[in-house]
Design goal:
- The chain is mainly alpha-helical.
- It is built from 15 helices and no strands.
- Helix 1 packs parallel to helix 7 and helix 11 (214-243) runs antiparallel to helix 12 (248-271).
């Protein structure tokens, strides 16, 4: 138990560091303050999602074949390269846009690897039933530090793009150091076959598993839809709060309070574990859609409440899906199948983003 506890603590720290000073709204604010237009920022976001969509599943396969620890180290290295490129871009949009490729790779390489490593660490000591607690705590850390980064957006703007990015680079150096100290855990026996053969087998077996377990695939799709609507609501609330008359001084606190709904959702997931997935999906989908509707009211308190509820229910269904997936999938395809979930989310985001933009522009 002592070994898994140390491993999980390191993963918690990496989760917190991953939401450094340029997370979420802070990153957008710093780019805007550096003189980049909304169209240029939008192009950067598009590049990020295209690369993420393309590399998500291959990165999961690489983690299963070559090791999750190696992918976590490469994730930190990719983020470090992205930070250095932006810090020394000299205002070049081309360099900033290019850096988004490395930012997306950093996200992809960590996605699936951290969860698989945590689950395998617990499973090695017969403690896999405690994975839902790890997943919940990790989500709380992610939400809290992401919210704090949003609150600190004014501070990062004051630093300026170069200093803020160099601060993020310092975070990534720590991230890499922790990743190097992780212990690789593999419950499956390594096979003495060529890497490309192993990669091909991982793809084949992973998608064969999904074909044979359509219920899991359906849960992944529903979870991605719910998550997509919630993320888009929180994204557009930044603009909607301003249009509703909320001052710039109150924007950060309002977004932070809204994001705390995710913390509550993660906390209650520890207490409510036996709700059937179908029932939970219906409750969460209804609640998130109602939360999305409050974003059209132009009433700050109602919008804040709707965003809070949406984030809470999104994290609740995410925790349930995460635990269900890890308990069901084979160890040797764990990272790959978790990456399939992230792939579905990216695909749905590309489809829903323009639709949400049209809805908010009309209303």
């Amino acid at each position: 138990m002592q070994k898994s506890r140390k491993q999980l603590t390191k993963l918690y720290l990496m989760n917190a560091i991953g939401n450094g000073c340029l997370a979420g709204a802070a990153w957008v604010a710093v780019l805007a303050s550096a003189g980049f237009t909304a169209a240029q920022i939008g192009i950067c976001e598009t590049i990020f999602h295209i690369v993420s969509l393309t590399c998500e599943i291959p990165s999961g396969v690489a983690a299963d074949v070559f090791g999750r620890k190696k992918m976590m180290v490469l994730s930190g290295a990719s983020a470090l390269i992205a930070g250095l490129m932006k810090a020394f871009s000299g205002g070049s949009f081309a360099l900033v846009a290019l850096s988004m490729i490395f930012s997306a790779l950093s996200y992809n390489l960590a996605s699936g690897s951290d969860a698989a490593l945590a689950y395998e660490s617990l499973k090695a000591e017969g403690l896999e039933k405690n994975y839902d607690r790890y997943s919940s705590n990790g989500s709380i850390i992610y939400r809290v530090f992401g919210g704090l980064a949003t609150l600190a957006a004014g501070f990062t703007i004051t630093l300026g793009m170069q200093k803020a990015e160099l601060l993020d680079v310092a975070f990534m150096v720590i991230h890499i150091g922790i990743a190097l100290s992780l212990q690789e855990i593999r419950s499956d026996k390594p096979q003495l076959i060529k890497p490309w053969t192993a990669i091909k087998n991982c793809y084949i077996e992973s998608f064969r598993f999904l074909r044979q377990h359509m219920k899991i695939l359906k849960v992944l799709v529903v979870n991605s839809l719910i998550g997509g609507v919630d993320v888009l609501l929180l994204f557009f609330l930044q603009e909607e709060f301003t249009e509703a008359g909320l001052s710039n001084g109150l924007l950060g606190p309002a977004l932070f309070i809204t994001s705390l709904g995710g913390v509550v959702g993660s906390m209650i997931s520890k207490k409510i574990r036996r709700t059937p997935i179908r029932t939970l999906a219906m409750i969460c989908a209804t609640g998130v859609l109602l939360g999305f509707a409050t974003g059209l009211t132009e009433l700050p308190l109602i919008m804040m409440f709707g965003g809070f509820i949406s984030a809470m229910l999104d994290d609740r269904i995410q925790m349930k899906t995460d635990v269900m997936l890890n308990n069901s999938v084979p160890s040797e395809q764990r990272s790959t199948l978790i990456s399939v979930s992230s792939f579905l989310f990216s695909l749905i985001m590309i489809i829903l983003s323009p639709l949400a933009g049209i809805i908010f522009s009309i209303f």
